[in-house]
Task: structure prediction
Amino acid sequence: MNPMSICTTPSSSSSSSSSTKAWIFHGVAVGAAVAVAIGAHVYLISADPRTWERAKLASSLDHVVIATDDEKIADCCRGFGADVIMTSESCRNGKKYDIVVNIQGDEPLIEPEIIDGIVKALQAAPDAVFSTAVTSLKPEDALDPNRVKCVVDNRGYAIYFSRGLIPFNKSAKVNPQFPYLLHLGIQSYDSKFLKIYPELTPTPLQLEEDLEQLKVLENGYKMKVIKVNHEAHGVDAPEDVEKIERFMHERNLS
Ligand SMILES: *[C@@H]1O[C@H](CO)[C@@H](O)[C@H](O)[C@H]1NC(C)=O
Result:
């Protein structure tokens, strides 16, 4: 399979205002794993075959399904052998899953261990409705607004996400000693929360930063954050695809 055979459509980027992301479909993974022992259904939504391959290796997901609202993407994904459901359908059948995992199309190299990590973190934190992952921020990315930073409390719950550098050193310079955290494009949600989530109206901080996850915090919900080692290759611009291809080639991933 051609590793870059991502199913794309020019108008598929419904969740992103950035047109540069339109050629990679926003991937959403719908997962379920409440009763791990019973093996609840877990659904993955992503139109990227590599994301799909990796998600299938996550032990917390026992069934990986691609969900999309686009018929062309659906056909393409069936083409590489994936089970596909249409998102309208998956919303109606929300009760089938306990946990929903969402892998952003701009972070296609997420390791299966990270998927398992956020699913387990959510299961272990009954007061949280949402879980996500962060990794170390590279100093050169400190002032890049496309790299979203995160600060957490001492129990690993998110305090805030920002496109600006947080925390901000008093000297107004990047502190090379501080372990800044970079947010990765993967989330999992409690399926009950997923029914409420779309109904929540946009919030001021969410709108100001253009960060969807702030809506969760601004409404007072708790979000669990796990720290992982991950070489982040967020795709924010077309040239990033080339970088990812090179990286995958070097690591024999393609
Ligand atoms: C700011 O960064 C410097 C290193 O660049 C560090 O020594 C200092 O503790 C940090 N915090 C404050 C408040 O200056």
Q: What stands out?
A: Residues 169-171, 175, 177 surround 2-acetamido-2-deoxy-beta-D-glucopyranose (CB under 6 Å).
